[in-house]
Amino acid sequence: MQGRDWLVTGDGQFIGCKSARDWDLLRNNYRLYRFLTEVEDVLDDVLDEASRLPELRMLVRRLIINCYWVYVQNLQPFSDNGTSVTLLYDELGFPFTVQTVTFAPGVKSNIHNHGTWGIVAVLKGQEKNTFWQRTPNDEFKDKIESTGEIILSPDDIISFTPDAIHCVEAVGDEPTVTFNIYGETDPTRRFDFDPVNHTAKKF
After folding, report:
1. For a tag on the chain, would you pick the N or C end, based on fewer CB atoms within 10 A?
2. Sheet holding 157-160, edge to edge
């Protein structure tokens, strides 16, 4: 069964999106460098973010369908925090972060946004995403409330607007491995959120 596509927005909404059909994305000799060039082309040619994310999700799906190399670029989870990150491409001035992330079963992230667009594809295991929205009041300007959750499985792809807030947890009995690509982060817009004390701090 083909994976699902999702969009998460700053108001905590998670929207199922139409996915490109796998057989329409099959390519010969499709490699990471082609993907990165195509991502740059979309960002140069498509100025509207709402139109960019569907195009970028399609490119990520094309990559994971055609490039087995991506599936073997991961580490075993670190023993201290249960996570590991493998940077797939790094070049001075290159405005993206491209990596695989491994979470040991049961490991949960903090509640955060990314301060930029982001797309995550599940390669292995299952990942629960919980979503939040800001609900400020006179006493707590950084108060947030949960809006729901979904469990992602292999071949599912989720995309985020810069202000989308979430946390992730590896569920099941095996590590969760994801392919992640993010735009250039605005550090003034990226936060960790504390839903108990109703605070937000710079990431």
Report:
1. N
2. 14-17, 5-8, 157-160, 118-124, 176-182, 97-103, 83-89
| Separation CA 90–CA 65 (nearest Å) | 23
Helix ranges, 46-151 (H): 49-66
Q: What is the pTM of this model?
A: 0.95
Q: How far is CA 4 from CA 69, 114, 190, in A?
A: 22, 22, 27
Pairing of β 157-160 and β 5-8: parallel
One digit per residue, pLDDT tens: the chain, 203 residues? 579 999 999 999 999 999 999 999 999 999 999 999 999 999 999 988 888 999 999 999 999 999 999 999 988 788 788 999 999 998 888 889 999 999 999 999 999 999 999 999 999 999 999 999 999 999 999 999 999 999 999 999 999 999 999 999 999 999 999 999 999 999 999 999 999 999 999 98
Architecture of the domain spanning 5-202:
Sandwich (2.60)
Q: What is the Cα–Cα distance from 100 to 86, expressed in whole angstroms?
A: 5
| Residue whose pair of structure tokens reads 């989720």 in the numeric block | 158
Q: Which of 120, 148, 122, 144 is nearest to 133 (CA)?
A: 144
Q: How many CB atoms lie within 10 A of CB 94?
A: 12
